[in-house]
Amino acid sequence: MNLLAAKKTYSPGSGLPNALSKGSTLRNGLWTNDNLWAKVIQLFHLFKNFGPNVALRDIDLRVLKGEFVFVTGPSGAGKTTLLRLIFGAERPTSGQILINAINLNRISRSSLDLLRRKVGFVFQDFKLLPKKTVFENVALALEVTGERGSFIRKKTHQSLRLVNLAEKEQAYPLSLSGGEQQRVAIARAIVKDPLILLADEPTGNLDPDLTRDIITLFRNIHMKGTTIVVATHSRERFEDSGQRTIVLKRGKIVVEK
Amino acid sequence: MNLLAAKKTYSPGSGLPNALSKGSTLRNGLWTNDNLWAKVIQLFHLFKNFGPNVALRDIDLRVLKGEFVFVTGPSGAGKTTLLRLIFGAERPTSGQILINAINLNRISRSSLDLLRRKVGFVFQDFKLLPKKTVFENVALALEVTGERGSFIRKKTHQSLRLVNLAEKEQAYPLSLSGGEQQRVAIARAIVKDPLILLADEPTGNLDPDLTRDIITLFRNIHMKGTTIVVATHSRERFEDSGQRTIVLKRGKIVVEK
Amino acid sequence: MRLRLWSYFLRQALMNIMNNRLVHVIGLGTMFVAILIFGTFLFLLINLNTWVQGWGHSLSMSVYLEDGISEGKRDMIASWIKSLPTAEIDRFITKEGALKELRRVLGAQAGLLEGLSTNPLPASLEVVFEKGEGLRLDPDRIKKELEKMEGVEEVQYSEDWLKRFKGLMSLIRVGGLIIGGLLCMGILFIVTNTIKLTIYSRKEEIEILKLVGATDWFVKTPFLLEGAIQGILSGILALLILYSGYYLLSTEKIHFTSLGVFDFIFLPYEYALLIFLASVALGLVGSLIAVGRFFDI
Amino acid sequence: MRLRLWSYFLRQALMNIMNNRLVHVIGLGTMFVAILIFGTFLFLLINLNTWVQGWGHSLSMSVYLEDGISEGKRDMIASWIKSLPTAEIDRFITKEGALKELRRVLGAQAGLLEGLSTNPLPASLEVVFEKGEGLRLDPDRIKKELEKMEGVEEVQYSEDWLKRFKGLMSLIRVGGLIIGGLLCMGILFIVTNTIKLTIYSRKEEIEILKLVGATDWFVKTPFLLEGAIQGILSGILALLILYSGYYLLSTEKIHFTSLGVFDFIFLPYEYALLIFLASVALGLVGSLIAVGRFFDI
Ligand SMILES: Nc1ncnc2c1ncn2[C@@H]1O[C@H](COP(=O)(O)OP(=O)(O)OP(=O)(O)O)[C@@H](O)[C@H]1O
Ligand SMILES: Nc1ncnc2c1ncn2[C@@H]1O[C@H](COP(=O)(O)OP(=O)(O)OP(=O)(O)O)[C@@H](O)[C@H]1O
Ligand SMILES: [Mg+2]
Ligand SMILES: [Mg+2]
What we know:
heterotetramer, A: alpha/beta, Rossmann fold, four-stranded antiparallel beta sheet, 9 helices, globular, C: alpha+beta, Alpha-Beta Plaits, 2 domains, 6 strands, binds adenosine-5'-triphosphate, binds magnesium ion
């Protein structure tokens, strides 16, 4: 089945641009604990308020290179907010966020753009462009990096095959089912061989079989060295994975195992 | 807990307008099999194509008044399309749809508006108005019926309490978490005491606890006589309910139990 | 119940305006500017017309009378002229007066008149036409009528100036019609399209309203009210700005080289009202058309 | 690589235009209409100016010469007049010619000239000014200069007509400036706001592009290209329509009552180019400003 292809496809760390590539070169695809750079995501005393609402309070978290972390918690716990902060789509009220030792509080706009090219994000609400086809939506993530057309086409086809959407390439997002849209969002996030993959409720609209496929896909990507953070409410589905799980409740980390 | 309040709140069949109220008056909140009107939803040889795509093929289905039906199936099976057809948001390519013995192929625009006031729909993509508050979004479903302001306010508060969102009444949808938005969509669908409740993946963004609460809520509504059709991929969550389940695959009903 | 619904719609419209501020400000601005341009154009056209018609005042006519005409006849001719709606007799020049005038004109060369035995010059009536209305009459027709009368020898008026004047007037009329027409069409196009764009940005809202069972009118009415409010506001604003401009112009009188002072007049009351009503109608009808486009659910 | 990027942007822009047809057609239409209105205004203004200047032709000047002036002096005066850029000597009227003319004018009354012993009338040079350029000279200054010359007795020209003429010219100039300025501002406002609305309807697209790591320029460039394409198209379209209008007018000659035939001229080459460039700039800059508004992610 398609997912086996991932083995050959994913080679993170290849062709890293600028600042990001310097400290973060993967050592044979494994992370080394003693290396300062090995802490890919570091959050220090992070707070995020929306007006009077406190979405996150005093979050301290380190994610090592190549880790696979689950963030769970009830609806409104702050999972999405946490991922958005890590992605630099939202600024913290206080506290520090270091991605690959780069402080997001002090990052320039253009460096943030560069960073985002190496971080894949599966948005909870997909965020697909309705006026572009599925293929164009996925290709977009590579277009912004200025890759060559043939490379973009190859990668995009591959990525769509991985999420089982090869035959919907020319469809427009609004004509897709919920689960199909979600898979386009996943394809777009993984097409660029991200160093970090942030996935927000990536299987909320998928049936159990597809969910299992996607989890397998993530595992394959993870095995290539990609750091993965998945926010999900469906704890039980991932339970067997035996990975590190962080439980949020009302903006606080209540369990970490 | 809040859900207990549902017992008192929901009294479907009260204040039905026009044509709809005639044949469909509930008999002591129970459906009677021998009554022609008791078949609330009837689908005959239903086909739906989107261009070359066949989303539904030859669907035959009758749902009795007061039934609780699950529609499951893999992503892209046609669950959403089926519900949208029943709701009159989409026209079938061929075949007949009768809702309360009204043929949707021949219904006038204004009758369709009337029908929709008595059918609640929880959309898979929520379809909330971003420029209106949560309260206004829910109240909207009653405003269109021309109800009195005080009644609308009372019902809206109640409905939001039932989905555990009382404290988010004045928030705007874009500032809500995915699960919160989904619950607003649910509140809007049930606020009008619908005769039929169509819910498309209503718990995809909810944690297991909330999912259980929502199922309990639906059960309570069902017990008052409302006909409910829920499309969901998470079969297992509802499995214990012992309700009728229809499994779609590639647009066809493959299992009906 | 009806009243409740209307107050609901009005609240809805006002809230929508608040919630879609950017879009509404742009829509309002466009309408305001469009109406202001049209108003300014109309204002200038009307003033230009008035000024040029004022110059019609300089049209004068000399009615030369036969020698030895009886007073009765002369008075008859004079009263006929006076009966013309805008004509006025500026003065009566006797034969002697005419000679004196000629002498004055000849100046140093006046000596050549010394040798005259009889006065060869005729008496005449100098006719002027009232300011602003001079051209309602056809001077040619008047000339013909007068020349048919007994006692009138000849009628002269400056046909050259009149020709130019008439040309200018028809130029203003035709030019005004062309630009005015173009402006009108352009404004209609721009305003309705801007409204279309403002509503386009809210087509999702329309779809959702339809999905929760709103009737078409329930959806449309707030949009229409918003359009009407925009029309009212931009109409009032444009007229106010136009009046302020007029006020400035008419107090700080503008002196054109050798043309003296222009007296501006504001748009006549009916025109201003018409502009206002047109602006409200534009907002309403524009919204009605635009909102209709997005009803496919 | 740069080239690849640019071809990507161009393809992107064209695809965006296709995908957002409604919005683009409206934007294009608005720009086109706005530019057409401005172009028509400019066209009419330029033609009006030309016609009115053409009337300057009717300005003529009589230079009365002293009796017994020598041929040499007379020729000197004549050649000085000819040296003026636009002046031309229409004819030379001798003393005898002047008397003949007076006799003709007096007609029946000419008898009174019989008693003259000497010819009291002066010889004169009749000067006319070339079509269209008459007003570049200051007749007053010419008059003064001539009167200082030996052998010139008096210089007369119709100051009344000139006054009106100058007034009209400054009216056209000031009026043109006011309407033109207002029109310009109005068009700028409307077009930039329409662009703002068209981009507003796509602000989600901008947000998503930023979220997948696009640089600001990567996001902006297609919008700018779209704006430029709109500017180019609407500029060309407006000029074409304007030219068609001109063509119609100039073949189907328009006869105004008693003003004869108007000869229309098209916008001078540079003006047309300027309109075109302004339209492209409008599209570009409008998009640049508008797209900047929606960069908050
Ligand atoms: N832009 C915002 N403005 C105001 N409040 C916000 C905003 N975004 C999120 N919140 C609030 O912050 C809290 C956390 O939201 P978040 O989206 O992170 O939850 P979540 O854990 O992702 O929930 P879910 O599982 O339902 O998606 C919620 O109460 C939400 O209402
Ligand atoms: N408007 C449309 N135009 C074209 N194809 C469509 C349209 N809507 C749905 N489809 C196609 O019809 C099929 C069924 O879609 P539908 O949304 O009903 O699936 P679903 O069972 O709800 O899936 P999911 O669980 O992923 O939501 C899909 O293949 C989808 O791509
Ligand atoms: Mg979330
Ligand atoms: Mg679906």
